[in-house]
């Protein structure tokens, strides 16, 4: 009914970041650029100008640190690391040296020099045509603007956006965090620029704000009267000039959506069991402090992915064995019930960095030293983490998982180091878990193709669909330009996942999925047809997944496998699967 009405409305499409239906007044934000006047300074005023810059630096750092402290416990540490990146920029010796040198040589005010230097770096990163560097450019622009405002004693404006849908060309992370810090309730966000993995997208998702990005030409139009923001994956649009009938239809859908959410919450205590008795295990992914809150209330079957890198990112230096043990112990005890906890060893590189450790510059960091490659080349760091896990795992249902595995040598080398650590603990007469299960992430094509070989060496597989999709389709998951190619429903991706599932079944090894697809209803149907019985997802997706599974027939779904594998493109896959999702 709604689709027929919507077709007569003006409908602008974009990329859904967080799903929901919002009806409200739009607020078009035409951000004013900071007006910087250039003026000459005398040579004897150079030190004074450098001191002005130092004071602004200190003030900006204090503001960011205050924001970090005030938001702790309200958003995940995984999202707060975005602000740590900003602190790193403010300490960048190359950037600071260039600004100080130019104050001395150019003899002009620091605001104008700062504007020029920031512009240069932003342009340079944009020209690299790499989304990771483009994001770095946006971070520099965000920090630079804060610095300039502090030099000019200007406050960044917080417009009257309470209870409205914010429409803007682009939004900086600190702006969104400031909105959240001051408890300003915005109904939704629409931006002209930005992608699914931009820092603002990550924050919008964490804050649960219905958001649509990449909507073309929104700044050139007049926004008058109520609009409908429909960020459900099936719609991903904003509707303008809707009729009363369409508004009424969407209001009813909003109400139904709310009722459905309430009904789904009641499923928390029930098992994920199909109508014909097929049992699935639904675990959760943990990547920060917020994920660790109320673990028992979320009632997962376990933690299928504990992203240990957040412990490293939250530290000022590599965390000690004792510090790691405290955190692993707490997570296991908070979960309770001897449910399994799978700890993924340190996974940094690509878009994940540590503030206290400088990674080598790489032309393509996503194909560089990341995951297990990093820890194998930093043996002492790896051994310290393995010691902490082995000691905590004594008498507990804790498992180890290696990230970003590409070949057999890596598994064998990691296992050798693991055995070394066991020998050292044994010699020291320290309790540890000798028979700990060890699994691997399947994130690259070579790992999927060699799953049969790896199945002889490991205890379980966990499929990371985000990276697997990126590497199979050679499409950067951070890039807006190839977003139409990056599609986890592409038959090539699904065939690779099925290949891993079949290898696991042949070797009697558990196969789980822990990427974003694990919480997607259509993908769950596909995984069930492949014989995958373990899924690990965001805790918020558990009720919806349970509802789907408890209303499905495993025998019927198994018959879908060959049909799915016969599809020629992602549209055929989606057309097939959507009939099984309620």
UniProtKB/TrEMBL annotation:
Keywords: Cytoplasm, Kinase, Magnesium, Metal-binding, Phosphotransferase system, Sugar transport, Transferase, Transport. GO terms for biological process: phosphoenolpyruvate-dependent sugar phosphotransferase system. Phosphoenolpyruvate binds at residues 307, 344, 466-467, 477. Signal peptide: none annotated. The keyword Transcription does not apply. The keyword Transport applies. InterPro entries: PEP-util_enz_mobile_dom (IPR008279), PEP-utilizing_PTS_enzyme (IPR050499), PEP_util_C (IPR000121), PEP_util_CS (IPR023151), Phosphohistidine_dom_sf (IPR036637), PTS_EI (IPR024692), PTS_EI-like (IPR006318), PTS_EIN (IPR008731). PANTHER family: PHOSPHOENOLPYRUVATE-PROTEIN PHOSPHOTRANSFERASE (PTHR46244:SF3). General (non sugar-specific) component of the phosphoenolpyruvate-dependent sugar phosphotransferase system (sugar PTS). This major carbohydrate active-transport system catalyzes the phosphorylation of incoming sugar substrates concomitantly with their translocation across the cell membrane. Enzyme I transfers the phosphoryl group from phosphoenolpyruvate (PEP) to the phosphoryl carrier protein (HPr). Belongs to the PEP-utilizing enzyme family. This is Phosphoenolpyruvate-protein phosphotransferase. It comes from Ilyobacter polytropus (strain ATCC 51220 / DSM 2926 / LMG 16218 / CuHBu1).
């Amino acid at each position: 009914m709604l689709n027929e009405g919507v077709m007569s409305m003006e409908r602008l499409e974009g990329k859904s970041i967080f799903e929901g239906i919002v009806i409200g007044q739009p607020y078009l934000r035409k951000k004013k650029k900071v007006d910087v006047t250039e003026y000459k300074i005398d040579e004897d005023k150079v030190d004074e100008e450098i001191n002005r810059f130092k004071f602004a630096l200190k003030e900006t750092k204090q503001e960011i640190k205050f924001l970090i402290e005030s938001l702790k416990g309200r958003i995940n540490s995984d999202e707060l690391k975005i602000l740590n990146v900003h602190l790193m920029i403010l300490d960048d010796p190359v950037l600071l040296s260039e600004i100080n040198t130019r104050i001395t040589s150019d003899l002009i005010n620091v605001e104008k020099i700062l504007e020029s230097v920031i512009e240069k770096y932003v342009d340079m990163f944009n020209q690299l045509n790499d989304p990771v560097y483009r994001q770095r450019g946006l971070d520099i622009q965000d920090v630079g603007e804060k610095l300039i405002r502090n030099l000019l004693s200007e406050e960044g404006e917080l417009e009257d956006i309470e209870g409205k849908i914010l429409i803007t060309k682009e939004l900086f992370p600190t702006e969104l965090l400031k909105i959240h810090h001051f408890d300003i309730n915005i109904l939704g966000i629409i931006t002209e620029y930005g992608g699914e993995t931009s820092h603002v997208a990550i924050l919008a998702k964490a804050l649960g704000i219905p958001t649509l990005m990449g909507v073309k030409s929104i700044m050139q139009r007049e926004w008058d009267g109520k609009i409908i923001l429909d960020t459900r994956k099936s719609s991903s649009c904003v509707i303008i000039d809707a009729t009363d009938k369409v508004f009424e239809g969407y209001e009813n859908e909003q109400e139904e959506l709310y009722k459905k959410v309430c009904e789904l919450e009641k499923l928390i205590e029930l098992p994920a069991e199909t109508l014909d008795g097929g049992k699935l295990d639904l675990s959760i992914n943990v990547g920060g402090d917020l994920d660790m809150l109320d673990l028992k209330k979320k009632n997962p079957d376990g933690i299928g992915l504990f992203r240990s890198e957040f412990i490293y990112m939250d530290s000022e230096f590599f965390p000690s064995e004792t510090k790691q043990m405290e955190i692993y112990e707490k997570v296991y005890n908070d979960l309770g019930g001897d449910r399994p906890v799978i700890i993924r060893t340190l996974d940094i590189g690509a878009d994940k960095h540590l503030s206290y450790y400088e990674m080598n510059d790489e032309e393509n960091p996503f194909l560089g030293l990341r995951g297990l490659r990093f820890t194998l080349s930093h043996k002492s760091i790896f051994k310290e983490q393995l010691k902490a896990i082995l000691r905590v795992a004594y008498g507990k249902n804790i498992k180890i998982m290696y990230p970003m595995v590409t070949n057999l040598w890596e598994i064998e080398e990691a296992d050798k180091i693991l055995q070394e650590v066991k020998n050292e603990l044994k010699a020291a007469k320290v309790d540890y878990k000798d028979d700990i299960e060890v699994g691997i992430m399947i994130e690259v094509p070579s790992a999927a193709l060699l799953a049969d070989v790896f199945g002889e060496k490991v205890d379980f597989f966990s499929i990371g669909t985000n990276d697997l999709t990126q590497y199979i389709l050679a499409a950067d998951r951070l890039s807006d330009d190839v977003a139409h190619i990056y599609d986890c429903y592409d038959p090539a991706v699904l065939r690779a996942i099925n290949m891993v599932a079949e290898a696991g079944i042949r070797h009697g090894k558990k196969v789980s999925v822990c990427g974003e697809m694990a919480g997607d209803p259509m993908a769950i149907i596909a995984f069930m047809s492949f014989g995958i019985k373990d899924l690990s997802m965001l805790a918020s997706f558990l009720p919806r997944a349970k509802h789907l599974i408890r209303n499905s027939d495993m025998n019927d779904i198994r018959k879908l496998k060959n049909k799915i594998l016969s599809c020629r493109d992602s549209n055929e896959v989606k057309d097939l699967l959507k009939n099984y999702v309620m």
